[in-house]
Amino acid sequence: MEIVSIYVLLVHTSFSDWVSKALREAGAEVVEGLGSWDAVRFIHSENFVKAVAKRELETLAAVAVAEVALTKRQAIFYAGGTAMAGLHTPRRNNVFNAAVYIAKKLNAAVISIDRHFPVGTWELHLEYKFPLYLVYGGADGPSYGYVKRRGYNVVVFPLPPGVGDRGFEKVVSFILRAAEGPLVLQLGFDIHRDDPTGYFFASEYFYYALGRALATRDFYISIECPSTQRVFVSALASLLNGIRGAEPPKIEIYRESTEVMKEVAMLIKRAKRV
What we know:
274 residues, alpha/beta, Arginase, Chain A, 11 helices, 8 strands, globular, Histone deacetylase superfamily, His_deacetylse_dom_sf, Ureohydrolase_dom_sf
């Protein structure tokens, strides 16, 4: 039985890359107008504002998307990527950390699920100390010990290469049980097993299971690393089907090795001590 869902997809009318086009084809609501520099200053420094001043349209369009998302209870939005936009520095064309902006407005936790460590979100966490859950490739980010020593109310999952559907589902299930209130997710698609540069093996099944788990919560999902167009479109469709309670994807689930699952279990055990 399908769930009566209230989610919306959001993208700005000025965005023209392939991710934006794919979202429009999926039925996204198109946001018009621009946000304000005051919203940028709400989380970013004056140095950051100076750095993105020449990209005013792109920056304030991202703000506008975040402001519309805040009027919803469930939103999946694209603001050009957010996770690398830090306190003082924009990176990788991330000109506004819409996810942290929403989390700070709602006093919500941020959950980052991506192969990459979210450097910008981490910097903002050190400044504002919001609850943070980090799921990333241990080979591409700082050690568990470093993050725990520096962070505030942070839960860390630096996953080993080879983690697939079962491992991601176990970790995310733990996080969703632990995190209260509305949830802000920075969701990457580079953890998919068909990502050409990755070493994780999540499939459409994981994105479907994530959607099912979120269906009854208030959530705000920022689309981060989209991987390839084929991966993104397929995984996004599974995420939406999960939220709606539609049929799960007919796909063979990747079976991780015993050693990989032992490491996942160890990280969850550590997290339970927090």
